[in-house]
Design brief:
With 330 residues, the chain is α/β, with parallel strands linked by helices. The chain contains ten helices and five strands. A five-stranded parallel beta sheet has the order 3-2-1-4-5, with helices on one face. Helix 8 links the parallel strand 1 and strand 2. The two termini are 24 Å apart.
Amino acid sequence: MFCNQCEQTAKGTGCTVMGVCGKLAPVADLQDHVIYALRLLSRTALKARAKGVIEQDTDDFTVRALFSTLTNVNFDPAALEEVAREAIRRRKALATKLGCTPDTCDAAVDADWESIRKVQAGTDRFSDDVNVRSAMQLLLYGLKGVAAYADHAAVLGQRDPELNAFVYEALAAGMPDKDGTPDKARSLEDWLDLVLRCGKANLKAMELLDAGNTKAFGDPVPTQVSLGHRQGKAILVSGHDLEDLYELLKQTQGTGINIYTHGEMLPAHGYPVLKAFPHFVGHYGTAWQNQQKELPGFPGAVLFTTNCIQNPKDYGGKVFTSGIVGWPGL
């Protein structure tokens, strides 16, 4: 395997035996296949948009599927394969709606799971120029960030069709044309322009997420947060999904169960709607990378929303996941 998509990567270059996060080679390969399937879907979605066909559920699926390939989100091979297969199904359905054939659209219009598994999936392999490949990778990792924000925003009802159109454009960029010839037309400057546009798209996605969070939960205010845990039954919530946290707070109200945040869920305590729950009592633990040392000592269940999970080898029996978070057996 080779994975260099996070700042924790081995020796600062790339994980080649297994990920420092616990990722194994089959999972790394499946994540590449998901991305390749999304690139193919994006190419067809762009053709659809040119004809005025926009499928919101496919837009939502695309950002959620891309988000699933981020570090510490989904380590479940079965779940990732299903994501890739869903991308293939959606591409074929959209191509059928448009009347696409291998002659009128591209040779890969009929690509199935078996054929996609045989492909070297990264578009960075489509160029011999190391600088172009670097820009391609920078664009891909930027897109994953856009997807993370856009998925969270969509859950809260905040979407922008232009943002989704850019995600499709950037994913499709660099793919071989319909006869299999790699895209050589883009210069380094063209790729850097896409990277800069990706930065703007990320700001837009953050605006959407901020609008969704504040509309649903109020404007956050400075708040003192208790650390550690108190006597009584408890559930710890990690990740970033404020909607999942809100639903859990409603379901546990009046049950005597205390709710805590973990890791990057800490800012949730500043939102007025969330902090109004009297059993939302504090924050436990430090950064996500310390969870294997800290979570065994938490006296209750742990819910991972959206990401931040690592191998729960010593405490898997009390871990639950929601959304796209996945670890085999949980």
